[in-house]
From TrEMBL:
Domain spans labelled WYL: 162-225
Domain of life: Bacteria
Start and end residues of each WCX domain: 286-327
Protein's recorded name: WYL domain-containing protein
Lineage, opening ranks: Bacteria, Bacillati, Actinomycetota, Actinomycetes, Micrococcales
Transmembrane intervals: none
Stretch forming the signal peptide: none
Amino acid sequence: MSPTPEQPHPVTVEERLFSLVLALIATQIGLTKTDILSTVQGYRQRFRVGADNASLERQFERDKDDIRELGIPLETIESPDDPGSNHHLRYRIPKGLYDLPADIAFSPDEIMLLKLAAAVWREGSLSAESRRALTKLNSLGIDSSDPVIGYAPSLRAREPSFEPLGKAMDRGQVVAFLYLKPGESAPRRRVVAPLAVVLHEGRWHLYGADQDAGATRTFLLSRIVGPVVTVPGVLIQRADDGQGDRALAELDALWRAQVALITVEPGSDAAVRLSKRGEPGGAAESVELHYTDVNILADELAGYGPEVYVLSPATLIDAVLDRLRRVRDSHQPLTNPDEEAAR
């Protein structure tokens, strides 16, 4: 009886972006979208020849934005035979723009320390698949001894729960954590089988099977308070690669369904920032904003003070007013103790 092949580990966001950056640095002529989706770690596992890869293409579009946000110069090259066509666009990262400046040099001791730091970074944050990425670059024309330290990784700050949740997913473990929802006075313990951690609208979300509710739920990592701990003796089957797509699809659907109508003060900071994100709402100063979480949007809008006026929905109006009233009340002058005693 032949042994059952081990199920591959889910590919994390960092692994996929790291592999994508390496591939785009390695190419001189650029890679087409099909080249990337069919060969790069994190995409190729879900790519299907001749099938609908729309969700994978949307993932690539989000990853392009993340790469540019990290300050990495991503170029697009049009085909001379088909100018203006997105289908034949090629993508690359110009190596000259991402190299260390020519006037910077390191001593042998400094090189040794940098190599050690690079090794620790790789070993501490990437799986065996991505640690083999340098070897795979041989097939793309780059010597595997090409120093990775020439490309300094820029890591986005994240919530402390990110790493333990990723490890729990890799090991098929159930976790428990305290979760504080807006409006509640104390956090509640949640027991969850983590299925995916995804980035949506600039915020990290956990998509998992809530063991008490018996259904999948989405949690904001910023609302997890305290440590994430594993539940001893409880193991689950590792999640398939489609869980992240399902989580993002649900968040996208929620984002499209929820629309806020606001007006902004012309020429204000709110007008500049919010008008770019929203759609015209009819009147000259009105804007329609899609959102996934009413409390997060209320926090943002309340921060603009009188520059923003919320027209709908009622839940958002109440949430913004509550925040403004709390600000007002916290700035009320303190009662004079002598006056209080004289009453």
